[in-house]
Write a structure and sequence with these properties.
With 147 residues, this protein is an alpha/beta fold. It has helices at 12-27, 35-54, 90-93, 108-113; strands at residues 9-10, 56-57, 70-76, 82-87, 101-103, 121-125, 131-141.
Length: 147
């Protein structure tokens, strides 16, 4: 499945949480907060409304392909240690295990990894311009932490 990377990816569970937060903020709109709190609330409402309108609901299959919603384990070239993180947008990361790192699918690393499978070596540029190679060791669907 090809994902439109300009859209935010969310699971159904995360989408439902976003809609609940939006409803709560709209219901609190007339709370007697200071101007700064009101402005932050209005901004968050606009952000959530835009997210709800443009979201891509997607439950990734267990096919080993690195994409949003997958927990990916990688090894950087020249290093023995591995790194494991969830490929996700900020809104989805709220459902993640707090000990699990997040990699945006829009970041240089995330963009390089999307579509990779176990054993693939991908290269990306760091903000400083260095080229870094990374090998995908594993990609499995994220399982939300039960609360």
């Amino acid at each position: 499945m090809s994902l439109n990377m300009s859209q935010a990816w969310l699971t159904r569970d995360a989408f439902d949480r976003v809609k609940c937060e939006l409803a709560a903020l709209i219901n609190e709109r007339h709370a007697a907060d200071d101007d700064d709190a009101q402005m932050r609330r209005k901004l968050r409402i606009r952000q959530l409304q835009e997210l709800v309108q443009n979201v891509l609901l997607h439950e990734p299959p267990d096919d080993g392909v690195a994409e949003p919603g997958m927990v990916v384990t990688v090894r950087y070239e020249g290093e023995d240690a591995t790194e494991t993180f969830l490929i996700a947008d900020r809104e989805e990361s709220a459902a993640a295990d707090p000990s699990l790192g997040i990699c945006s699918p829009h970041s240089p690393l995330g963009t390089a990894l999307v579509g990779a499978v176990e054993g693939d070596v991908r290269e990306f540029a760091t903000p400083g311009g260095a080229r870094v190679k990374v090998t995908v060791l594993k990609a499995v669907p994220h399982q939300p932490v039960m609360q």
